[in-house]
């Protein structure tokens, strides 16, 4: 079996191809994206920090958000640095994300290469991964971009470990690769959590590589495990998200993992052709299909150069098994916390980023196994290349379709904020504004759906971090004492007074809710603003588009 790349040129061509696929998808909707949900909460704080230097700016942001972001210091650095350089221009944020997505797929490929994976696996698995719609949120939502940073440094860690082992083979220990390995480990874990369990595989692979070559790697493994444990202890000590299981633990875990598997292998597997056809009939432009078909054709022509017949049934089965192990480990962080809420298109699908590595391996192995049983070499190659190219093209279409909702959401947000500035009241530190007359979601993308996104946007506009705001959704209720909203299960109460204002975006009028009579009069006479006229959606999921 062919295990190594034939020439250096093949490696460069493969990398160029992977980069082209990644960039061709992201660049298509990059210029239409904006800010969403948590982004506004962060911007509301960042826009009111007065610091003369970048380091003090980062520190001030950390101090303000330390209760929430203390376990993710890399996210603090990323968000504050992006604001420092790009202010409230979303394009710079999304270009930086494209950089990390590109770096991620490069080191994914190089890592598999260093692990002696056959060229067909080292190329095809990252190709499928970079176009999967399973974790579409991390392509569009600024608050989730840190997950891509974490995943990118995970692969850098694998690559650095293998390069360090190569230096030992040559009789010299490379401290540069050792430091790169340790630094990438810490950065990845301190950026986000979903990738953390997969580092156990990294340690095992490093140990196995050293053992098979007769090398002593106790130093790098010991230091890696030490840093790994210290980072985990740090997160456990400060995390507020551990636990939260109110019902039977096994039942909750089983239901969550079952829902995830349905999304990952059924919704985006067996039913994907149906969903793509539905998008073609209802939402996606013809240009998108033309680009996706062109990309699929190019991928098909590229893949048919590989000699599929060289790989055994054992290889394909081991690939599927490896993918399944990675998939389960990619979700295993949620064994410690009750916040796995799988969704195919909503912002909660960010949690699939690590598991999607296993998904791409399972898809690759399953398609390869299906082709194995074909005797004719040409048909065998076709049976492999065609499904892979269709899968990649379908991922392109699904990702773009999801992005159109985020683009529409940002346009709606800007119109709402413009209306509030033109026709709304002057807001002071004492005011609380309730936004009415909008649908909180457009497809899976949130417009404004909770207290922190609208409040953050208003804090940015009015340069006042004390302004409070919330949104009327189907979770709002009122009684003799005040209004109550519910966000992610948390109740927010707003007592009637002269500072409680409700703004109707449809009529562009605002009303002061001083007492129960005012509230009753408003909600009785503004039936046209009833949220029940909006498509049914919920936090983290939005509205189902399939």
> What is the approximate shape?
globular
Give the helix tally.
18
Whole-number radius of gyration?
Answer: 25 Å
User: How many domains comprise the coordinates?
Assistant: 2
What spatial order of strands do you see in the largest sheet?
4-1-8-9
Protein name: YfhO family protein
Keywords: Membrane, Transmembrane, Transmembrane helix
Task: List its salient traits.
546 residues, four-stranded mixed sheet, disordered N terminus, YfhO family protein, membrane, transmembrane
Short description:
By secondary structure, the protein is an alpha/beta fold. 61% of the residues lie in helices and 7% in strands.
How would you characterize the overall build of this protein?
It is a single chain. The protein is built from 18 helices and nine strands. With 546 residues, the chain is an alpha/beta fold. It has two domains: 8-35 and 88-406, no CATH class; 424-543, no CATH class. Strands 4-1-8-9 form a four-stranded mixed β-sheet. A three-stranded antiparallel β-sheet has the order 5-6-7. Strands 2-3 form a two-stranded antiparallel ribbon. Residues 1-5 have low confidence and may be disordered.
């Amino acid at each position: 079996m062919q295990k190594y790349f034939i020439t250096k040129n093949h490696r460069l061509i493969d990398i160029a191809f992977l980069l082209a696929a990644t960039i061709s998808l992201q660049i298509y909707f990059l210029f239409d994206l904006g800010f969403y949900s948590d982004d506004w909460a962060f911007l509301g704080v960042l826009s009111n920090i007065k610091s003369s230097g970048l380091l003090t700016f980062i520190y001030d942001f950390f101090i303000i958000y330390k209760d929430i972001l203390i376990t993710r210091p890399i996210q603090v650095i990323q968000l504050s640095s992006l604001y420092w350089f790009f202010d409230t221009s979303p394009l710079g944020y999304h270009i930086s994300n494209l950089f990390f997505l590109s770096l991620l797929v490069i080191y994914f490929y190089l890592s598999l290469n260093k692990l002696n994976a056959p060229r067909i696996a080292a190329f095809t698995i990252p190709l499928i991964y970079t176009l999967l719609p399973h974790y579409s949120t991390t392509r569009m939502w600024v608050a989730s971009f840190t997950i891509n940073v974490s995943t990118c440094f995970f692969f850098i860690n694998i690559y650095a470990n293998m390069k360090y082992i190569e230096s030992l083979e040559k009789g010299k220990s490379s401290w540069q690769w050792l430091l790169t390995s340790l630094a990438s480990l810490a950065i990845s874990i301190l950026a986000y959590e979903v990738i953390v369990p997969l580092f156990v595989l990294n340690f095992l692979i490093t140990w196995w590589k050293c053992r098979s070559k007769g090398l002593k790697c106790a130093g790098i493994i010991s230091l890696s495990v030490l840093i790994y444990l210290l980072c985990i202890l740090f997160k456990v000590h400060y995390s507020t998200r551990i636990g939260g299981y109110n019902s039977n633990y096994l039942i909750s875990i089983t239901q969550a993992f079952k829902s995830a598997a349905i999304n990952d292998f059924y919704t985006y597997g067996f039913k994907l052709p149906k969903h793509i056809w539905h998008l073609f009939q209802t939402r996606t432009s013809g240009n998108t299909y033309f680009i996706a078909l062109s990309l699929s054709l190019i991928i098909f022509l590229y893949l048919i150069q590989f000699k599929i017949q060289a790989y055994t049934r054992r290889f394909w089965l081991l690939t599927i098994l490896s993918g399944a192990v990675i998939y389960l480990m990619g979700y295993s962080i949620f064994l410690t916390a009750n916040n796995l809420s799988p969704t195919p298109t909503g912002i909660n699908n960010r949690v699939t980023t690590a598991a999607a590595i296993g998904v791409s391996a399972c898809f690759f192995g399953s398609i390869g196994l299906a082709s194995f049983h074909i005797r004719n070499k040409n048909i065998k190659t076709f049976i492999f290349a065609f499904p892979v190219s269709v899968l990649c093209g379908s991922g392109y279409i699904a990702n773009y379709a999801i992005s159109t909702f985020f683009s529409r959401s940002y346009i709606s947000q800007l119109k709402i904020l413009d209306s509030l500035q033109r026709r709304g009241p002057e807001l002071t530190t004492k005011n609380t504004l309730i936004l009415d007359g909008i649908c909180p979601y457009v497809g899976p993308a949130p417009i404004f759906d909770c207290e922190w996104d609208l409040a953050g946007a208003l804090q940015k506009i009015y340069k006042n971090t004390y302004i409070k705001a919330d949104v009327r959704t189907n979770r709002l209720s009122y009684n003799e004492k005040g209004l109550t909203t519910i966000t992610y299960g948390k109740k927010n109460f707003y007592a009637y007074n002269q500072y409680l204002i409700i703004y109707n975006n449809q009529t562009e009028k605002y009303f002061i809710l001083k007492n129960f009579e005012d509230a009753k009069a408003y909600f009785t006479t503004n039936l046209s603003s009833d949220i029940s006229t909006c498509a049914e959606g919920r936090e983290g999921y939005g509205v189902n588009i399939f």
